[in-house]
């Protein structure tokens, strides 16, 4: 099997988005080449999720970032389709509510963190606080004292986010961060498809088109964000996203490697527990199946 090219950034080298082709598919030419492996990856993820849920030591927190129409919803729908819904929590970060704006910028993240043993999926995340908030100069809406809004506020937020992710890891919550890197031309085609197909009209938002005017600024903010918040414990993965089939396969490939490195196991039963189980086994095999 061919090995995909992985754009992993852990702070040891700079990220340059213009050096990563959004239409790249590594050594693969078409979807058929990786379809079988993609299905195998999904099966592995399902099996490892079962162990994660049973063990309840770690939490896998998958963070999906990307511009409009980058394919975040499709990744959730296809890559995680084989998981047990009981052990998955998906949360989409929309425009903050009045209540959320009254708290610190990480407050709403705390309220939606998944439980131990679960796979959490953030469709967008706390990273919006250094992306859309910065692009559209929304700090004045966050009730921050004016004297605290300085030219250094973004560096401070990068620091706070990095420390927050260190805190998560120290509590067994493992952030896995993906940026779906789509080209402007491909985004245009996907937005047009939403207009031309009646079954996709509901996906279209006028704000998606308006946001295209800020394309270059978003690219600069994403690049700076990656370079300031990538670390060995919480690296960023840049996913070429023009080809949906490749982006989904690549994310599944990366996740399989991560969960395998956890060496998850089903909980072991103690000698005392084994005696109890043996007694119930004997009751089921030879007894009436009812308690006296």
Automatic annotation (TrEMBL):
Cell division is among the record's keywords: no
GO molecular function: polyphosphate kinase activity
Any single GO BP term: polyphosphate metabolic process
Entry keyword Transferase: yes
Residue intervals of the Polyphosphate kinase-2-related domain: 36-260
UniProt cross-references to InterPro entries, sorted A to Z: P-loop_NTPase (IPR027417), Polyphosphate_phosphotransfera (IPR016898), PPK2-rel_1 (IPR022300), PPK2-related (IPR022488)
Protein name: Polyphosphate kinase-2-related domain-containing protein
The species this protein was found in: Ethanoligenens harbinense (strain DSM 18485 / JCM 12961 / CGMCC 1.5033 / YUAN-3)
């Amino acid at each position: 099997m061919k090995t995909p090219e992985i754009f992993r950034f852990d702070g040891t080298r700079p990220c340059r988005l213009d050096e990563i082709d959004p239409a790249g598919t590594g050594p693969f030419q078409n979807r058929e080449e990786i379809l079988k492996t993609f299905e195998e990856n999904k099966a592995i993820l399902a099996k490892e999720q079962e162990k994660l849920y049973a063990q309840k030591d770690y939490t896998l927190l998958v963070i999906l970032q990307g511009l409009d129409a980058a394919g975040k919803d499709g990744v959730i729908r296809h890559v995680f389709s084989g998981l047990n819904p009981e052990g998955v929590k998906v949360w989409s970060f929309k425009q903050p509510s009045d209540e959320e704006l009254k708290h610190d910028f990480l407050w709403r993240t705390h309220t939606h963190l998944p439980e131990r043993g679960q796979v959490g999926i953030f469709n967008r995340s706390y990273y919006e606080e250094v992306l859309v908030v910065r692009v559209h100069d929304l700090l004045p809406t966050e009730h921050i004292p004016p004297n605290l809004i300085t030219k250094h506020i973004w560096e401070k937020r990068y620091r706070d986010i990095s420390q927050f992710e260190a805190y998560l890891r120290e509590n067994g919550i493992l952030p896995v961060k993906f940026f779906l890197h789509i080209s402007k031309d491909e985004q245009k085609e996907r937005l047009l498809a939403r207009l031309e197909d009646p079954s996709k009209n509901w996906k279209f938002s006028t704000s998606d088109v308006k946001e295209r005017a800020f394309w270059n600024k978003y690219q600069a903010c994403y690049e700076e964000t990656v370079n300031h918040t990538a670390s060995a414990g919480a690296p960023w993965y840049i996913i070429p996203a023009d080809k949906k089939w490749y982006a989904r396969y690549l994310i599944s490939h990366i996740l399989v490697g991560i969960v395998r490195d956890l060496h998850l196991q089903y909980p072991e039963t103690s000698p005392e527990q084994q005696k109890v189980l043996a007694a119930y086994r004997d009751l089921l095999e030879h007894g009436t199946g009812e308690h006296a």
